[in-house]
């Protein structure tokens, strides 16, 4: 069974977490740590190898950020700070593209994240 079969894209993880068993809650918590650690340490390599997969992982992290669990929220917030800063680092060029191009690619996801953070 693949990850996307276990947790289909678009799953409302905030609701899923509220209704989850303890084991399922632990699984969602581990998802937050997995994605933030993996992307935090290997963002450029993963993004280069599979940009669509990386973007899908970003979608999952947005949903995880919405879960009412302060430890998970803080973990995700640290990642979002790192991710947002990566767009404004002086001289950052990914695979020949500048940070403005990268910002545009992730704009819809970052907009959804901003909307959530502002209303939280």
TrEMBL record:
Pfam families: CRM1_repeat. This is Uncharacterized protein.
């Amino acid at each position: 069974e693949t990850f996307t079969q276990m947790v289909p894209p678009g799953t409302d993880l905030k609701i899923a977490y509220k209704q989850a068993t303890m084991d399922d809650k632990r699984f969602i918590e581990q998802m937050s740590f997995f994605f933030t650690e993996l992307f935090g340490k290997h963002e450029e390599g993963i993004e280069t190898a599979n940009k669509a997969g990386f973007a899908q992982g970003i979608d999952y992290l947005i949903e995880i950020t919405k879960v009412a669990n302060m430890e998970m929220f803080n973990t995700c917030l640290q990642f979002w700070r790192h991710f947002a800063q990566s767009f404004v680092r002086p001289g950052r060029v990914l695979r020949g593209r500048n940070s403005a191009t990268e910002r545009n690619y992730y704009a819809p996801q970052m907009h959804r994240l901003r909307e959530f953070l502002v209303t939280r």
